[in-house]
Amino acid sequence: MKLSRDEELFLRHWVYDVAHFRDGVGPAKRLQVEHHIVPADIAAIIAAAIPDPAEQDSAAATRPTSTPLWPWPGDSFQKRLTEARTVLAPH
């Protein structure tokens, strides 16, 4: 599953925020809550688009320098989630 640059930046922020939850609610996590998206749905997109555990670990360890923006206008998040679930479905 290929991500847009904005999606990848947001997801890397989100991974970092989740890994550093003890530091408080990070900006990507805050956006996820504001958009009423459950964490498991974000995690599904990450699993489909960034399946390498080492790359996920790197995102968790590297503090992003930019400010995350919500990359899914309208109903596009649900479309991406459907795409991710298709990628992750057993064949």
Would you mind describing this structure in some detail?
This protein has 91 residues and is mostly helical. The chain has one domain. Helix content is 62%, strand content 0%.
Q: Structural class per helix/strand content?
A: mainly alpha
Shape category:
globular
- Give the % helix: 55-70%
- Taking Cα atoms only, what radius of gyration do you get, to the nearest Å? 12 Å
Strand content: under 5%
**Which segments are poorly predicted (pLDDT under 50) over 5 or more consecutive residues?**
none
How many separate domains make up the residues? 1
Task: Look at the structure and give the mean pLDDT.
Answer: 95
Short description:
This protein is mainly alpha-helical.
Reconstruct the topology from this structure:
Layout: H1 5-19, H2 27-34, H3 39-49, H4 53-61, H5 76-88
List the main descriptive attributes of the protein structure presented here:
mainly alpha; globular; 91 residues; single chain
